[in-house]
Design goal:
This protein is of the alpha+beta class and 313 residues long. The protein contains eleven helices and 19 strands. It folds into two domains: 120 residues, Rossmann fold (3-Layer(aba) Sandwich); 172 residues, Tumour Suppressor Smad4 (Sandwich), CATH 2.60.200.
Length: 313
């Protein structure tokens, strides 16, 4: 049950949509009390805010920010909140692209989402998902809804540095990378370069193989409308794993079919449902968790985290 007085709102003021809408915070304050709203200007402010919400008995946490904001909040939430009392979550968007909120059915501005859901609680649905907890040998665990290595972080690096942020900039980056791959350009070779890896899926060690990307997700979409993880969310304590060794040319030629969800293209990717995946690579391969970039490490351990309720319109 979504109870207004048990809602806590966490806002990242630096997120794309939030920073461009100076009146958003005040509009949210018209829906919830001041005690229920925290503006976190940097990552260090997230833990104190969540501790206050935990002590106040908050039962539903609304995250207003981009995909990276959700990753930071999820990671901190799992560190400081008792697993058996985790709040329900609403990813209300607020970022530039908002892949995770959109995949969970949330597309309207954050204040409209919160107002509609609190005024019409009988129209709120619930889904149970387990975030993916990514652990590396030399660092802390990071929790998120989408993991990818290889192509994805290289594409994001190009997108962040060379194009304007937003949907049009992202589409422009896709066109540039795919076009370069079609004509054998340096950009395509760099973004779509393959790597050797050996996967251990739920305790079963696979043969070493060549990959262009390894993707795991608790949501079905990975960005820009590409729905390549169709079983994500079907089983709460598992995530969808998708891998491919396609070359840059293969990927570029298949992009339209993947966007249209043609079975011939989706089924050409190797799929699995997993609770735990260990990725062993010969060389460090960069990766991303919810659009946040990380340097490569080996091995990487991907595990399904605790089941969390997500509210959506």
């Amino acid at each position: 049950m979504l109870e207004l007085e048990r809602i806590g709102v966490l806002i990242n003021p630096r997120a794309g949509r939030v920073s461009k809408d100076p009146g958003l915070v005040e509009r949210l304050r018209e829906i919830v009390s001041a005690e229920q709203l925290r503006v976190t200007s940097d990552a260090a402010a997230i833990a104190p805010a969540l501790e206050e919400f935990r002590n106040a008995g908050i039962e539903t946490l609304v995250i207003v920010g981009g995909d990276g904001s959700g990753c930071a909040a999820l990671t901190t939430l799992l560190e400081i909140w008792p697993t058996d009392r985790l709040p329900a979550l609403i990813f209300a968007g607020g970022g530039t692209i908002n892949t995770v909120p959109r995949s969970l059915g949330v597309a309207d501005p954050p204040d409209r989402v919160l107002r509609d859901m609190t005024h019409n609680p009988d129209q709120v649905s619930e889904t149970i998902r387990s975030p993916i907890c990514v652990t590396r040998p030399d660092g802390p665990t990071v929790a998120g809804m989408i993991f990818a290595n290889g192509v994805a972080p290289r594409f994001l690096e190009y997108y962040y540095k060379e194009t304007s942020l937003g949907a049009w900039g992202a589409f422009d980056a896709v066109i540039n990378c795919a076009g370069s791959a079609l004509f054998g350009g340096k950009l395509g070779k760099r973004v779509f370069s393959r790597f050797s890896a050996r996967l251990e899926i739920d305790g079963k060690l696979q043969e070493t193989a060549e990959f262009s990307t390894i993707v795991a997700g608790s949501v079905q979409h990975v960005g820009l409308g590409f729905r390549i993880l169709p079983t994500a969310g079907d089983v709460p304590d598992r995530f969808h794993l998708a891998t491919t060794g396609w070359s840059g040319l293969d990927i570029a030629l298949r992009l339209p079919g993947l966007r249209l969800e043609l079975p011939s293209h989706i089924n050409g990717i190797d799929h699995a449902s997993a609770k735990r995946v260990v990725i062993h690579t010969e060389e460090p391969v960069p990766y991303t968790v919810d659009a946040e970039l990380f340097e490569g490490a080996s091995p990487l351990i991907l595990e399904a985290g605790p089941a969390i309720r997500f509210f959506q319109p």
